[in-house]
Every structure is written in structure tokens, then in C-alpha cells.
Amino acid sequence: MVLIIGPFFSGHLRPEDTLQGRAAMLSNMRYHTSVIIALFSALGVLGSSGKKLMRLGAYADRIADTERAVRAIAHSTDEGGRWPAPRAGIADPIWEGSRPS
After folding, report:
1. Rg of the Cα trace of the chain?
2. What does the alpha-carbon distance between residue 2 and residue 53 come to, in Å, rounded to a whole number?
3. Residue 24, class by beta-carbon neighbours within 10 Å (0-12 exposed, 13-18 middle, 19+ buried)?
4. Using an 8 Å Cβ cutoff, are 3 and 36 in contact?
5. 83 with 99: CB under 8 angstroms?
6. pLDDT digit of tens for each residue in the chain (101 aa)?
7. What's the rounded Cα separation, in Å, for the pair 44 and 9?
């Protein structure tokens, strides 16, 4: 509040004692209020952008892991494009259903 109304009552923006001077003061107060609100809003956006960047970095890591897993699966097929037989006692973490034939 002090940032908004302080200069109008004790600073260089003090209005004249006329009706037009007071109207100009109210107009300037509205403008200064909107500028200060926009600045604090921008500050809030900047404060939360670091967290969003961290989240995007985590998603990028997950996508890279998925890409490596897909490439590993693609290299594990034989020349005919069929899947190798599963090894006994080892669960396949990629497929939950039946394997494609």
C-alpha cells in the first residue's frame, strides 16, 4: 500500500487542490496500482518457473529411458522379427499381456 499511495500524499505526485488535480491523482493511482500488480505477478511467475523446469527435466529423463528401453527391445529380436523365447524364471517387465507373434 505504501508503494501505491505514498508518493501521492507526501511525494512528488501530490495533487493540486482542484477537482482536476484530484482526478489526475486518481488516474495516476490506478495506473501505478496496475503496474505494481503486474510486477508482483511477473515475480511470482519467475519464482515458479524453476520448479517447472525441474519437472520438464524429469520428463525428458523418463522419455530418454523409454527410448533406450525400446532400442534394447528392438535389438533383442531375431532376423525374422520374432521375439526370443523368454528365459525361465525371469519376468518380462515390458509386456504385461501376451507377447506378439
Report:
1. 32
2. 34
3. middle
4. yes
5. yes
6. 666 667 667 766 677 778 888 888 888 888 888 998 999 999 999 888 988 999 999 999 999 999 998 888 877 765 555 655 555 555 555 555 555 55
7. 29
Q: Give residue limits of the domains in the chain.
A: 2-75
> Residues 40, 1, 11, CA angle at the centre, nearest 5°?
110
* Residue whose cell numbers read 527410448: 67
Q: Which residues contact 8 (CB under 8 A, 6 or more apart)?
A: 14, 15, 25, 28, 29
**Residue 76 DSSP code:** T
Determine the Cα–Cα distance for residues 85 and 99; give it in Å rounded to an integer: 10
List CB contacts of 86: < 8 A, sequence separation 6 or more. Answer: 92, 99
Q: Output the pTM of the full model.
A: 0.46
C-alpha cell at 37: 500488480
